[in-house]
């Protein structure tokens, strides 16, 4: 018995030692609260940490504009998952406050602080809008009523305010110089939940060189106050622009359809248990504003070494050693580093003596685009061979750029260099004759020995020339092969163009691919134990597959018309009923915290269902 207890103690100690290492990862400390709250109603604010904090290091914000009626309430939790022999651990540490707003208006909860292993982490400030419902705040559905009749769609639209969903082009500045970096982000501002975003048009930047900064793996989500209201924001497109023309340039607006969700109480209300809720998907078209940018020309009087570089740069030069032998290769290196339109920086001019044989410039670069501009370096290598011995003075290398801070041209210059070319170390002749103290040019060297030709003596030996290739049998064979290949390529391209013009066909072909991508995202949320995001992504995958496959907008999809479309394509009623059941499970689990449905089961059933439907439709 003692040995058994000892073994259990050792196993527990081992697990306690291993778990912190397994849980090590990216530490996040985030604050969450409702977007809006009514005056006089309590609001719940949570500070969540995915690690064990250092004791006594939490510092709460001042909560100015609120009365603290409860808190801080601490909760800790951790879970261990063993899958295929791999053990993972997650830690949740949450501090909760219950606040009561003092006055209507926009109030910002400041940053909270906490330390983990001596490192301090801070939350982002959290704006909250406090509304006074007595002054005509947001419209609310009266209890026990539900929309109906022919006015259902208009009634659903009326429940979403005109400024509840906005699309804005946020531009860093409205007046720039030519080739000065400009940042533009297309942001979606929402005050209502939404389930899908359907782009109607993509950004176009006429007169600009654009660099896409969007990261598909990172969603730029935040909270902002705009026009006195608090919005959840999401960056949809993120670009760095460099104007290439002078004058008034416009950033054209983009359009998209946002499918919002409206939750209303079911009219069939149970007097004892209460009524359920109906969820309606309401499409709302939004459009960004047209942004006008004034592009100013660069000042006159630019030096001759200016090639359009704008920003802030430094220059480093590396010349060969002062002594090297003739007919040996050497390299001059010029490195331009800094921030600006680095992509457009050209190689500075390097003037070499005429007896030097210069080759093509080799360029290497390291480019890092960001919101403030492109940073990094461009390095230019000038390889050459000195063909004649002697002493040479190399002219300094000059590089000129327009400095945006000082609003003037800045010229960087290398130091003068003296090179001494010694005779060929191998004893060979360079073949270059020094005339008047200078080396002959490459063109002059090539002409040596070519101006006088030897006269051939003896009888001429004439022979018959070969049959010309033109119009020969081989010629006609190759020509026919080329024509046949051209015809086949032309027919294939025509077929591809016809298929690409058929929008319905293309959407149907990519339906399964898009669904697989969304299933992958759902699986990631499942592994992160993000329940709400998992079921939301599963619904997007299932509804989105049916929308693309049947060419029916998501907003118009219902369980009934999906079953009807599946029946038309030979899918069994059992599979159709299975699809309806999974949709119902996802809806229930997404909005019911007590739902018993396992995420892994829903995920497996959803993937299997789409695979079986795809196999039937492709027959």
From TrEMBL:
Keyword Disulfide bond: no
Region feature (Disordered): 130-156
Transmembrane segments: 473-493
Keywords attached to this entry: Membrane, Transmembrane, Transmembrane helix
Pfam families assigned to the protein according to its UniProt record, in alphabetical order: BatD
Name of the featured protein: BatD protein
